[in-house]
Amino acid sequence: MITTKTSQTRRDCPDIDPRELTLSPKIREECGVFGVYGADNAAATTALGLHALQHRGQEACGIASFDGEKFHTERHLGLVGDAFTGDDPSERLPGHAAIGHNRYSTAGKTVLRNTQPLFADLAAGGFAVAHNGHLTNAFQLREQLVADGAIFQSTSDTEVVVHLVARSKRVQFVNKFIDALRKIDGGFAFVGLTNKELIGARDRQGIRPLIIGKKDDTYMLASETCALDMIDAEVFREVEPGEVVVINESGIEFIRAFPKVPERPCVFEFVYFARPDSIVGGQSVYEVRKKMGQRLAQEVPADVDVIIPVPDSGVPAAIGFAQESGIPFELGIIRNHYVGRTFIQPTQQIRDMGVRLKHSANRKLIEGKRVLLVDDSIVRGTTSTKIVRMIRDAGASEVHFRSASPPIKHPDFYGVDMPNAERLLAANHDLETMNQLLGSESLGFLSIDGLYWAMGIEHRNADFPQFSDHCFTGEYPTALIDFDRKSNGQNPQMSLLVEVA
Ligand code: AMP
User: Fold this and answer.
1) Residue 377 Cβ < 6 Å to ligand 1
2) Which of 95, 115, 178, 362 is deepest in the core (most CB within 10 A)?
3) Quick check: CB of 381 below 6 Å from ligand 1?
C-alpha cells in the first residue's frame, strides 16, 4: 500500500503526446538523486540533499519514504525550496529511509507524470526509484514490453526499469533489480527504495556519478559530494562503475553487477554540470575548472585589458585565465540569481528571453576596454552571441571570447542536455564563421588535450579514452540503440560505437 501525496493529481496531466514516444533521443533528463537509510527524519535529510543538488535539475522534484509499513511519496513541479519548505517534510513523509530526485527535462512536457521518484506496488513489494542519466535502449525495451502487455504511465525511460524489475523471475529484490540493469544500456545512476533496503547502482563505465556518504551509522547516496557537505556527512567512497550498493539494517553491501570495463566518467560533469565545490573522481571541480582556464590562457592568449567571466559557470576558468595571464579579472556581468539556468526553459523563444533576464553588464568596468569573455562552453551559441552584443553595447572597444572546453560537435545521449547536432554551433561552422556569428573580435577553444591536462591526465588514450568525451570527439562509450533505430542505421558514429562499447 502507498500513501501518495502530490501537489497535483494525475488527472490534471495531459495525455501522452505520441511524439514524445517516437523522438527518443530528445527525451533526456539531467537530474540529481539522493537517498538515505537509517535516519530519524529521512525525508527532511533528503530535502536538504536535493536542495544542494538543485543545479542538476529545476523543473520538478520529489521524495519517497518508507516508514516500516507504508511508502509515502510527494512529487512537485518546481524547486525543492518551494516544494519542501515550511513544516518538516518528514511529518508528511515519515520513515527512516527515503530517496529523492531533482528533474531537468529538455523535451516533452514538464508533467507530474514524469516526475520522480516513480513508485510501483510490485508482487515482490513496493518499489520507489529515481534516476539520473539516460538509457540508450529504453525505447526498444519499451516497445517489447508494450507488445507484451505492459501499460506505461509516463514517458520517462526510468519506468522501463520498473517493468523489468516486475518481470524478473529472481527471488531477492536486489537480484531482480540487477536483472533489470543487465538489460539496459546507457549512462545511469539509480537510487531505489524497497521495504527492506536502499539500493544504489551506477552504469558499467561510470558515466553518471553516484557517491556514498556516511554520518555516524547512517549511509546516504548522492549525485555529488556537495549534498553530503550540506548535511555534514563524510564521503565514504564513490559507487564504482558497474557496482550495486545495498544499504539495510545489517549495514552496507557492495555487489559487482557487471564485469569490470575501463571507466569513462562523463567529462561534462567537470566542464559544466557539477557544482564547483563538489569533489568528482577525487578531484575538486573548482580546481579542474581553474586549470582549464589556465591552460586556455596558454593555448589561446588574448591581448585585452580585462577578463570577465560569463557567470556563474565561467567564473573558475576566468580566474585561472587571469592568474595565468596576469590580466585583471572583474565581475563585468552581473547575474540575476532569481532566474533559472538558461537551458531550463524548453522553447527557444523563452530561452532567448531567459538570457536577457539573466545577465546585465556592469558598465563602469567595460566602457572603453578591450574585454575577454570566458565561459565554460558554447553549445548553441545563444548565450555567447547575446553576451558579446551586451558587452559591446555597454561600451567595450573590443570583445573577445574563449571557451574553457573544446568545440561541442556531437549530441549527448547519457543525460546531459546537448541538443541534436543541427543545433550545435560548432557542429555546423568553422572557427572563423563562429567568430563572425558571435560578433567577437576573436574566438578560441580549449583543446581536448588541454581538457585532459586540467583533469590531471597527461594524454588522452586514443584506444580507451579515460573519460566519456563524446560531445567533443563523437566517440560514444556505448551503443546508441534507440538513436540508431530512429535514424535507420544512418548514424555515422555507429561503427565507432560498437568498437568502443
Ligand atoms: P549556448 O547559449 O547554447 O551556447 O549555451 C552555452 C551556455 O549554457 C554556457 O553558458 C554554459 O555554461 C551553459 N551550458 C553548457 N552546457 C549546458 C547544459 N548541458 N545544460 C545547461 N546549460 C549548459
Assistant:
1) yes
2) 115
3) yes
Range of the domain at 320: 279-471
pLDDT tens track, the chain, 501 positions: 333 333 322 222 222 333 333 333 333 457 999 999 999 999 999 999 999 999 999 889 999 999 999 999 999 999 999 999 777 888 899 999 999 999 986 444 567 888 999 999 999 999 999 999 999 999 999 999 999 999 999 888 999 999 999 999 999 999 999 999 999 999 999 999 999 999 999 999 999 999 999 999 999 999 999 999 999 999 999 999 999 999 999 999 999 999 999 999 999 999 999 999 999 999 999 999 999 999 999 999 999 999 999 999 999 999 999 999 999 999 999 998 876 554 555 566 766 665 667 889 999 999 999 999 999 999 999 999 999 999 999 999 999 999 999 999 999 999 887 778 999 999 999 999 999 999 999 999 999 999 999 999 999 999 999 999 999 999 999 989 888 877 654 443 332 222 222
Using a 6 Å cutoff on CB, does residue 417 contact ligand 1? yes
Point out the ligand 1 atom lying closest to the alpha carbon of residue 378: 4
What's the total number of domains in the chain?
2
Run of H or E including 361 = strand 359-361
Nearest partner of 98 among 66, 130, 70, judged by Cα: 66
* Calpha distance 446→414 (Å, rounded): 23
**Contact 31 CB / ligand 1 (< 6 Å):** no
Q: Ligand 1: which atom is nearest the Cα of residue 412?
A: 19
Q: Is 384 in the pocket of ligand 1 (CB under 6 A)?
A: yes
Q: Which helix (DSSP H) or strand (DSSP E) does residue 442 occupy?
A: strand 442-445
Q: How far is the CA of 412 from the centre of ligand 1 (A)?
A: 13
489 in any annotated domain = no
**13 carries an active-site annotation:** no
Q: Separation of 331 CA from ligand 1 center, angstroms?
A: 19
Catalytic residue, chosen from 31, 61, 266, 471, is 31
Residue 78: strand, helix, or coil: coil
- Is the overall model pTM greater than 0.70, yes or no? yes
Please indicate, yes or no, whether residues 397 and 364 belong to a single structural domain of this protein: yes
Would residue 179 count as lying in a domain? yes
229 and 257 in a single domain? The answer is: yes
Cis bond before residue 312 (omega within 30° of 0): yes
Backbone angles phi, psi at 76, to 5 degrees: -135, 150
Any idea what DSSP says for residue 271? I
Q: Please tell me whether residues 164 and 302 are part of one structural domain.
A: no
CA of 155 to the centre of ligand 1 (A): 25
Which CATH number is 189's domain given?
A: 3.60.20.10
Residues 217 and 365 in one domain: no
